[in-house]
Every structure is written in structure tokens, then in C-alpha cells.
Amino acid sequence: MGSWDTRFGSRNVKQECSSSTSSRLAPETKRLIRLASYSKCQAKSCVCLGWKPLSNQLPIRCDELALINALPCLACQHSFGCHTVQLSSKSADELEELAKCAQAMEQFRAAMQRETSSHDKELYQFLFFSLRRSLSEGRTHRLENPLGLPPFERQNVIDILRMYFVARNESCDGPFGRSPAVLFEAFISWLDGYRLVQPPIFEMLGRRTKEERVDYCVCYDRWFIYCYVPGLCNYFKMHRPSLIFGSQLLAHIFGNSFRNPSVELCLQQHKNSFVTVDRLASFIADFREFLRSFDATVGVPSKSDGLPKCLQANLGDNADSRSKASSKPTRRRSVLTRKAKQADKRDHDIPDTLWYDIKNEYERREQLRRPHILLDSILELMPRDKLARIEEERGQIFVHVINNNLSQEQGKEKLFWLLQLQNVISQQLPRMPLEYVARILWDHKHKNIVLIKNSIVIAGICFRMFVDQGFSEIVFCAVAANEQVKGYGTHLMNHLKDFHIRHGVYDILTYADELAVGYFQKQGFSKKIHVDRSRYEGYIKEYEGATFMACKLYSNVVYTLLSSMIEKQKDFVQLLGERLSAKHDPNTVYASPFASGSDLKLPLSVSQIAGIQAVHVRSTTVSTSNNATDQSSEDLDKLKSLLTKLRSHPSAWPFLEPVDAVEVPDYYGFIKYPIDLETMEHRLESGYYCHPKLFKADVMRMMDNCRRFNHVTTRYYKAAVALEKAFLSMWVKEMEL
Fold this sequence. Notes:
Keywords: Activator, Acyltransferase, Bromodomain, Chromatin regulator, Cytoplasm, Cytoskeleton, Nucleus, Transcription, Transcription regulation, Transferase. It holds the Pfam family Acetyltransf_1. It is an enzyme of class 2 (transferase). Residues 406-554 form the N-acetyltransferase domain. By secondary structure, this protein is α+β, with helices and mostly antiparallel strands. The protein folds into 4 domains: 2-137, no CATH class; 157-327, no CATH class; 359-562, Aminopeptidase (3-Layer(aba) Sandwich); 626-734, Bromodomain-like (Histone Acetyltransferase, Chain A, Up-down Bundle), CATH 1.20.920.10. The protein has helices spanning 2-8, 10-18, 27-36, 65-69, 80-84, 92-114, 118-137, 157-171, 180-192, 199-204, 210-232, 241-244, 247-253, 261-268, 277-292, 309-324, 333-344, 352-369, 373-379, 386-393, 412-428, 434-441, 488-502, 517-522, 533-536, 562-582, 626-647, 667-670, 677-685, 692-709, 715-734; strands at 397-402, 447-453, 456-466, 471-479, 507-512, 547-552. A 6-stranded mixed β-sheet has the order 1-2-3-4-5-6. A hairpin with a 2-residue loop joins strand 2 and strand 3 (456-466).
């Protein structure tokens, strides 16, 4: 290792600092000399990576720092000051932080000399050069890990143990005994202290596919950097494996034997523990069966009643680790969880008993209407992905995430699906060259989520995830022509969103052509890009004539179940209204507030309306402040001006008045919610539009009705397109929403 020390000059620095000459230097001067040996020379066109002193050239007195600045470097002959010019503007705390970085770097260099494993030696070398790069540039070290930042999974081991405890507690068949807390504490302590086997040894334990070997290697590298190395070097923050890893780590560990001496050592740490190795082994065997049917998309139980204290205590640590461990600009669940807890603390008008009654009534009605669900879905307006979700539940369609991993061990079925997806994309996107589609689709860095029906790929989305940048790019999105308008595209996009949330990516970007903009807008994409340009510039592929769009994801939403959840919420609100209205006599007649002799003036407050207090309506729901009044009057003036401009637009002639039922007899049978500019004017005068977005919704419905009823080649259809474009431009300029 002589050449290594000569390159960085550490041997000379150690000799000088340990000599009697350098012992007389001030501590600040010693620290500066230590940092200079790792600081890049700032002289023009100089490639020297650190100052290397000549033998016995340091001054004897500690106040001769000016003399040190003039001393030449052994390698580049430039002065000491050329190597420390970037350190002169640093504060004492920053210099101390850089000194700790240099100390950690020396520890890693010593660890590399002792390490016999080539894999671990490469990881030490990666950390060494990461620190070396920060020191040479004179900046505080920030670990730029290509493997991502913790937490690495949406649900960590603590969350999975909570779900396991709740599931086994409800079925009363868990191997907990009388002391479940001690059992969980023993398992968590054992897991946090478990030493993962090195990847070469993992490959020797059994036949592994290339994907399994790569997954384990990534998991091991993450564990080594964030859990093992901080125990040797306190410069890096220590992370507990049970808080940053989840089902993937458990799956790798369960492949090995749990009958390990570390279990007994873990049990000895718990003096009051009555857990035996056999009982812990039975718990692990049952936990392994639970993991086989584990679904990562299921939410973690929010209630802590009956949970062991170790699972409750770590819940707060889990939130902290998710919010503080990563500086990546991604959405974390800690903020959402905190808001939800604050909302739960508010006083509710609805008693708990009434909520339970409504829940039971909803379940009873759901059982009665289940045989007619398909008939209802045909006759009623329903979410776009409802039929697709039902087909997936019945096993008629399947969704898979596949990609080409450049291995000969790939299944033929997966390769066949990739070929079918290539055909679907090339047919639906004829402007894309076939060679370009094939190159992107078969690239191992791109993934593809496909929808299989009758063993044939009918839809697919090709995307690439940039985990370090915190976003993903959709390259291709296509549905077979004979399977469109069936909700498959929406259902596939929902699966894609859930897939990204499970991997900690909360922003999706894409370039959409003119025919796909409407589809992406329905899926939550917007032309207003909320992602910082520095995050995606140079990473994504740009297309001429396409619209750049972005979508933000929220970790507390399961998108494949979102539409059904909204449906349930609507049904609950309707049942709640029925229960509340049933408690009051509808035949009760209240006296008019404007009886003879009354001095009431308009507008009335809510409390002045007779009968309102009987139904427990809060008066705070209606704001009568001056600010609200001024705001509503200002919005009203803007809407009137906007309506006048719409009526005077050259393309507004089909929408000036309602459609004549005599001239178009089948119009009102086809269009259930007709609207026109004259009706909107009446609504505006009557105060119907309590919010400007209601006005916008009516305008968009008017355009949509016209496009649905008329053919694309008619002048009515073209007028709707032109007026909609003009309206959206007016809306952005005038309403500023």
C-alpha cells in the first residue's frame, strides 16, 4: 500500500504531526495541515489532490502560520496556501466537520487494508472516495448513494409486525402466549443485530436467479452502508434495519436458517424474558407463513390498542426516520399521519353508535345489491375503472411488471409478453419508429407494466424510474384498439401509481401527444409542472410537438381502490343524511322569520333561521365576515365579465340558448345534464355559483355535451373545441386560480 500512501501523502503527514516539531503547533494549525493533505490545489491547471510537505520543513513556533502558507508542496511545488484557499472562508464548526470527515476517511482506508472480502472492500472504497471528493472540494460531505436513501420500503419491519400481531390476535391463533411483548422485543433485537451474509456466500447457499442475486446485492449494500458501517464509524448516522427495511429484507433472511447463536445472545440481553429458543422458532415459522400472503398495499393499523409496547414505541421512531432520514424531495407519510391525528382529535357531531349503525346498514345493503352489481354498472354512471377492477378480482385479467434483464434464465412467457407489448405500442403509436420502440422497450433500465387478458397483452405502460432524483418517466402508454373505452387504461395507470408509491417515488413525468393529453388529465396529470427543473433536466426524453405533463402521488392513497372508496364515502354520507332526517318530523311547520313586526334584515345568519338549531347545524359553517363578502363580490364580477366574453365569442353561437327539443327530439334523452350560456346567466344572477369552480364545471360540461352528441366532423364539435380553448385561456388570465 506504499503507492496508496504516496498518492495522498498521509504517511508524511502522520510522521510530521507525530514529531516533536509538529507537537508544538497550535491545534487549529494541526487541523489545517491535516485538511490540506486532502485538499485539491486551487492553482490553475494543477491536478494535485493534496499538500505533501517536505521533511522537517514545518516551523517550530505555533504562531508562524504565515510561514506555513509559503511552504511548497512536494508534488506540485505550489504553496500551502494554494491548497487551503477554499478553507479560509470556513467557520470553526465547518472546519471541525471536515476534520471528522478526514478521520472517517482514514478509518475506511485502514478497514480496506484489513478486509479480505472483495465485495466489502469495494464498499469501503466507495465510501472512501465519497469522503475524499468532499474534502478535496472543501465542502460538507453528503452521501450521494446510487442505491437510494432510507427508508427503502413503504412498510418497514415494525409495520409488518403490527399487521401480523393484529391478524393473529383477531383469529386467536398466534404463538404469542402470555408475554407477546418479550417475544417481539427478542425478534426485533435479533433482527437489528443480524449480520447479513456477503453476496458471494449468498450465491453459494443455493441456486439463485440473476434477479434474486441482484436484489440481495442491493439489499446487502444498503444494509452495509446505513446499518453496519455507522457501528464502526460514528461519522455516519446509524439506522436500525427494522425501521428502514421491510418485506424484502425479511424475504432474504428467511432463506437462511434462524437457528443462529445470535438468537441465544439476544435472549440473554432480556433479563426478565421467559422466551425460549423453541418458542421463538415457532413464532418465526408462523411469521414466515404470514409473509407468504403479505400484501404491501394494505394499510398499517393506525390504532395502538392491545399492541406490545415495543411496536407502539417504534411507531414514533418510524415516523421520524421516514421524515428525517432522507433529504430527497419526496412525499413522506409523517406529515399526513400527523394531520390525520389532529383531525381525529376534533369534536364530531355524530355519535359513535350512529356510525356503527350506518356501517352495518351499508354492509347489509351491499350484500343485497351484490348480485345486481353488473346490471347497476351498465345502467348507471360509474367510475372508469370499476369494470376492470371487477374483472381482475374474478381473475379475468392480470397485471404484471416486467422488464428485460439481459439474462438467459428469463422465462419464455415474459419475453412473449414483451413482444406482444411491442406490437400494441407500434400499432397505437404509428409515428414512433419501430426500431426506437424496440430499443426502449427491451432496455433493461426500463420497466413495463402490462395488462393480460385471455393470455394476450392488451395494454401496457413503459416507464423508467429515477429513484435518486425522486421521479419516474412514462415513455409509452397504449391500449389495444378493440379494448379501449373499457377502463383498462385507468386501471393500469392506478396500478402504476401504487407501484411507484411502494418504491418511494411520488412524481411521474411524461410527454403526451395531442391525442393523449385528455387521457393523462383524467389520470391526474397537469400541464403545470411542480417538479424542480434541476431534478429532471438531462434525464428524460423530450419530444417535439408534445405536451409536458406531471402527476404528484400521495403515499396515503391506494389508487386502485380510490374510486371504490369514494363510492363508499358517498353511500355513507347518504345513509347519514337519511338517519339524521328521520329523527326530525318533516311535517313540522316553522313560523316565518319575517312575521308582522319583525325587524330582521337580509342577509340572515344561520342561527336566525327557525329549526336550524334542532338539527345541530354549526353556525361556523357559513362565513359572514367582510373578507368573505368582498371576495364573493369580486368573484361575481369576474364571472360576469367572463360570461360576457364567452357570449361574444365567434364560436359561442351553438351555446347561446337551450337546445330546442322540437328540432332535436333525441337530445334530452341522450344528454342527462344539459347546460347553456343562458341558463348559466340565470344561475349567476340567482347566486348559484358559490365558488368559481362551479362556473368552470358548467362550462366544461357544456363543451363535453356538445362533443358527445355531435360527430367530430360537424361544425358544432369544432365550435366546442374552439370555445373551450378560448375559455381556458380567459380563465387563467382573469380568475388566477
